[in-house]
Amino acid sequence: MLLFFIYGGAFLTVIFLFIGMYNLIFSSRLAIMERLKIHTMPADALQKPETAAKTKGYGGELLRVLGMMGKILSRRRNLKTIQTKLLQAHILMRAEEFIGMIVFCGLGVFVLLYIFTGSFLFSMPCGLLGLKLPSMIIEIKKNRRTAALTQQLPEALSIVSSGLRSGFSFPQAMSVVQKELGVPIGEEFGRVILENRMGKPLEEVLHNLGERNDSDDLKLVITALLIQKQVGGNLAEILDNISQTIRERVRIKGEINTLTAQGKLSALIIILLPVAVAAFLMVMNPDYMLSLVKETIGLIMLGIAVIMQFMGIMIIRKIITIDV
What we know:
By secondary structure, the protein is mostly helical. It has helices at about 1-35, 45, 55-75, 75-90, 95-115, 120-130, 135-165, 170-180, 185-195, 200-210, 215-230, 235-260, 260-285, 285-295, 295-320.
């Protein structure tokens, strides 16, 4: 039991150390970006962030090491895709640094589990799963930002439409959205205005807006704006129709989420119940649980259980996923 508490304390120490390092790394960068307003940065600087100012101190050194590790392990053609995902998730990190963090996370999970269990066969697959943890976090943050933008988009289009009917130009109407609405839609519209004022054509600015946000509704708006610019038409009426369409899609998605809440809860229980039972047995009888990862038959049973659990989650996800 004493050994278990020692391992638990070591694990919590590593976790808190990682959180402290994260805050140390990104505190100065976030402060700088807040002062300079991230939307003032051109798209080229985000696609090629090597020219950006480097943070000082230990945080900058660690980022430099992670970046070097990422350059060694990554492929050039994958960096742009990773950088786009980081941009969509609004995470201020270079693609090389993110790849280095993936490797660091995988090694950290492997070392911790190997120290805790002493089983290489159990720690290695978990370490490989740990490589996916940063990507999962990126995906969650990107989905949250996309959902927030989609919720704000109908109101933003209504404001732009009203501004156009009042005699405002399209950039002036978008500046009203920037002032009235918060993150993320206000920030994104503000960057569109700034890039347009810097001399970029509207088509390029709207294309950059679509790349920065993985929202089908926003891409629908961008497509409509580009078509209207080419063939003409009543832009205010077009935006009103699109706003109504998006409102209906949001309403239908809300109803679907309500109807599929039971399935999502079932999937959550499937995920958490085995982990909770294993944690409870580990506290009550560590030797009994450790035999599961030290014996060959135990590892086989554990692998089969993980595979079956994964299959159950995928089946439930397939059932509750409805495209609108």
